[in-house]
Amino acid sequence: MTIWICGTCGVEHPDTAQPPATTCRICADERQWVPESGQVWTTLDKLAADGHGLAHQEMEPDIHRLNREPPFGIGQWTHLVQTPRGNLLWDPPNHLDQQLVDKIADLGGVAVIVASHPHMYGSQVSWSHELGSVPVLVHSADRQWVQREDPVIREWSGVEQVLPGVTLIEAGGHFPGAAVAHVATGSDGRGTLLTGDTIVPVVAKGWVTFMRSYPNKIPLSAGLVRRIVDRLEPYQFERLYSLLGGTILTDAKAAVRNSAERYIAWVGGANDHLG
Ligand SMILES: [Zn+2]
Ligand SMILES: [Zn+2]
Predict the structure, then answer these.
(1) Torsion sign, CA atoms 68, 69, 72, 78
(2) Nearest bound ligand to CA 115?
(3) Is 2-274 in CATH node 3.60.15.10?
(4) How far, in Å, is the centroid of ligand 2 from the Cα of 78?
(5) For a surface tag, which of 108, 184, 189, 231 has the fewest beta carbons within 10 Å of its beta carbon?
(6) Domain spans in the chain, listed from the N-terminal domain onward
(7) What string of pLDDT tens digits covers the 275 residues of the chain?
(8) Are 127 and 113 in contact (CB under 8 A)?
(9) Is the pTM of this model over 0.90?
């Protein structure tokens, strides 16, 4: 059985004797990109055997970050959230090897797998099979982007509490089903938000941005950014962890709100006299 993995986004494809004959659909989309030299495929077995390492960081009690070193694909900043009723594997890794399997077992295993959006589907089905066929939750609006179908996949939408104190929120924007995960017990009870690509910290401390495409710099509209902020309004969060290592460690909710107001002013034309 050969599981084919896109060399650019790192998303798994069905097992076939030969690599897929087509370009990866996720990378052909305007939010991603295909290398100038053309589509590249690798396999789960090759990725496991290529001499990489694993970085484990406890971000705070019960929230862990697991990174492949060097990174592969988009980067896959996986988080594992521990709860008394089992753990959430958020933005599952695109590679699967014994070192990572052992680390996840040390952390208490996994009860449910959720990717924030299709760029982060990684090897979600392979991981589910490895971990006892735990459910893989896919937002129903983004189901068309699943490349490897499997009975472990279950659809969700809206707001869903997946584990005690861990709530998936359909924030939209980057993808219609782009999700954030709210951990109520995070940040010493002040709340922590895992944001994937929906909300991404920028270089200046305490600020974030919101994009349809990060590599291709395609913005979102004022309306979509307003909707993201509105959907998060009921939740408190002191800290925020996004993709590619971006973090806000204090007063994250205010950072999101202030950044959204700045963004909306610019895309809405309120600052045109400055340009
Ligand atoms: Zn791809
Ligand atoms: Zn993305």
Answers:
(1) positive
(2) 2
(3) yes
(4) 14
(5) 189
(6) 2-274
(7) 789 999 999 999 998 999 999 999 999 999 999 999 999 999 999 999 998 999 999 999 999 999 999 999 988 789 999 999 999 999 999 999 999 999 999 999 999 999 999 999 999 999 999 999 999 999 999 999 999 999 999 999 999 999 999 999 999 999 999 999 999 999 999 999 999 999 999 999 999 999 999 999 999 999 999 999 999 999 999 999 998 889 999 999 999 999 999 999 999 999 999 99
(8) yes
(9) yes
**Number of residues that make up the chain:** 275
Q: Rounded CA gap, 121 and 66, in Å?
A: 15
Please tell me the distance between residue 22's alpha carbon and the centre of ligand 1 in angstroms: 11
How remote is the CA of residue 213 from the centroid of ligand 2, in Å?
A: 7
C-alpha 74 – ligand 2 centre gap (Å) = 8
Neighbouring residues of the ion ligand 2, judged by CB less than 5 Å: 119, 197
**Distance in Å, CA 61 to ligand 2 centroid:** 27
